[in-house]
Amino acid sequence: MSKQDHAALADEFNKDEPRVDWHDQTLWFVREKRDKAAQKVPEWEWLRDTASKIKDNVLSNLSEYLTLFEEQAIRNGIVVHWAADAKAHNDIVYSLLKKHGIDRMVKSKSMLTEECHLNEYLKEQGIDVVDTDLGERVVQLAGEPPSHIVLPCIHKKKEEIGEIFHEHLGTPAGNADPQFLTHAARLHLREKFLTRRAALTGVNFAIAETGEFVVCTNEGNADMGAHLADIHIACMGIEKLIPQRKHLGIFLRLLTRSATGQPITTYSSHFKRPRPGQEMHIVIVDNGRSVQLGRKDFRNSLKCIRCAACFNTCPVYRRSGGHSYHTAVAGPIGSILSPNLDMKQYSDLPFASTLCGSCSNVCPVKIDIHEQLYKWRQVIVQEGYAPAGKKLAMKAMNWVLSNPSVYHTAGKAGRWFMLNAPFTVNNGLNPWWKGRDMPEVPRESFGQWYKKNRK
Amino acid sequence: MSSRDKILAAIKNNQPDQRDLPAVTPPGTGEFSGLSRQFIEVLEGIGGRAYIVSGFHRIATILKEQYTDTHRIVSTCPELSALAEISQHYEDPHTLENVGLVVLEAHFAVAENGACWITEEKMIERALPFIAQDLALVIRRKDIVPTMYEAYERIAGAEYGFGVFIAGPSKTADIEQSLVLGAHGPKSMTVFLLDEEMSDAGFY
Amino acid sequence: MRVGLFIPCYVDQLYPQVAIATLHLLEKYGCDVDYPADQTCCGQPMANSGFEHLTQGCNDLFIKNFAAYDYIVCPSGSCTLHIKDHLHGDADIPKKIYELVEFLTDILKVENIEASFPHKVGLHQSCHGQRGLKLAQMTELMAPPFSKPEQLLKMVKGIQLIDLARKDECCGFGGTFCVAEAAVSVKMGKDRVADHLHHGAEYITGADMSCLMHLEGILRRQKSPVQVKHIAEILDSKE
Q: In this structure, are residues A227 and B93 in contact, taking their beta carbons and an 8 Å threshold?
């Protein structure tokens, strides 16, 4: 596990309660927008079901679809690269830039490159990368990772962004008007678009049948980058495949309604061939996904289309912030994807949930997220990543609960519970007491009452 | 074994049993009415605007009224040659940096989300609909489909190098969820719905 | 019909009045109720912590205690769901176990409750009951609304059900989550309580005592006069 686990980082986040309230309400507002957008589509639940089934088909034919996609993409004039892991991915991107003598690049949003830590790697190689999504640019200037996959700087207040822009872009101190700051970023980044010869984008959907890929943005930053650059590099995980173009008619109806409550993103760009004189590259990345595909209980996590609806609805995410997940993809979906990447480092994440199930209900591809959280807990314990103290407590609890005579003699009503119940199990400092009073212990248990009154 | 072959072999080895593709035809009656009204309402809801017009002379009049200060207007519509530069080709997309308004004909529009579909051959340069400060698209009023399902039925196997659905002006809400129009692309989007049977006074 | 009464361990030990109210209700509607004395726990606290493999003892004990009944009824959605989803070794039990509310609405088809509770009451929808057992429609889904607990509560004389800003947000109890992630758990609980208080609740009710125990802990810490009451207590109430 990393230095601080989710609980410790969440504890830190909760020291500023008004900020937690603000964070919670901002994201709940996005969840409400999602609800309103979905309500306008009478066949919403049918769309989710269909999307989920299309992804079932994709997972069961993934190697064939990838082969077909590659063949079609090459026919379209796109160069296709394969990366087994993050390092291979980063090396491929760097070698392409090096080959063209390029030392600065614009990049639109790609969670895959976050997962691979591409920016850090390229920086070490002397390449200057500018993130062009406004939210990503903000966190990049702040020296932080994104806290949300759709709204990267949702944890930042506008005043803080005003300060960052003042420091880095020279905007007037104290100006925190979103309209003004966005305009400043527009001017700042337009210069980058016009001067960078390479542009990297993510991929939302790759179509096996045609070899084209679709990139969705609201800002237009992927297009500004790609259409002005000599070389366009698109990076995608193997799970981004969909079989046919017509399937976009399902996914594009779901993606943005689930993500932000918009009916569609401003731009849904279909890249099929490089423009004359341009080079277009696709890097197809595995990085543990083929392993996840082999885990029967967890392979459905690969259906994810990165809408972040599960973030916005998650009562824990809203009150712990994206950075508490200490991983590129936070939130409920991140908690079922990350243990596959590093079970030890992310062994805390499946426990950062109440298993309330709201995530599974908003998921546009119907991933059984909360059930996978439960299952990851079992795997993590079985693989030996549970803290030793917890193991002992659980064994003790189980011994009592498996033996009625022990249970009944463990003390008079309530006493054993007050010492050992689930909510006081980590006794010591008794975290229950920190924010809550203890229940009052009754005179007798129901078992005792029943013996006197019914038998 | 190459990296490619290793990855594909690992996937093949781990992929689950065959699951069939579902039908993508939506349930329901498939009856739609008032598509242009719905399209306009949705487009306005996402920060765009629309006019139903009887011909290009109306488009020219409206544009002249609204873009009095715009120096460089680029279009693919020869009917607008009086106010726009009509070109078939630009050597370097970077020279489009100072375009104020671009007026392009698009293929069709989608009522449920306010999007218009346009492909490369209708945009002169791929960068053009994005780099301009303002965007106007022209669509035949009859070319509005209800949903993305019909949109892809219509696109079907069409050949293009680049195609895009554009729905409203470029926008962001990254700063505290405050919606700001004009992130990197056009700050406004106007759609002209061309209906030759309309009277000139008409705006639905 | 012979009903085996399954009382969650913490209800047995800390909230006997909830079990008594449950028993009263079942008896009132003509069930032949029996409480197997050797019952302890469904095993959920261990299983949700990742120790499902330790729950064999609880599992076997549950089968031994309850296999013989026509129905098993429990005043907790969470424990009921755990048995439904995770009990192994007896295929019938998951089919004949019911949470109290759904047993009253779906099996006993109760249409009339002689109870009165003249107070403003907020209903807390516990996640396992709602999303797991589908006791009520979930706000995430685009589907017609219904609510079995509300259906019953509306039959209670004098009761005034309040609206909530967030109808089915989790309270943050979450089993061992309540101590392992105490900061978030408490904050979730405080926010839930605030929603009820803001809308004028005098009582918070629900079908899961564990959530209510957590909310009660927060209310008491805040020295609030507002109380929690399990839905069985209200349905069995004669004020």
A: yes
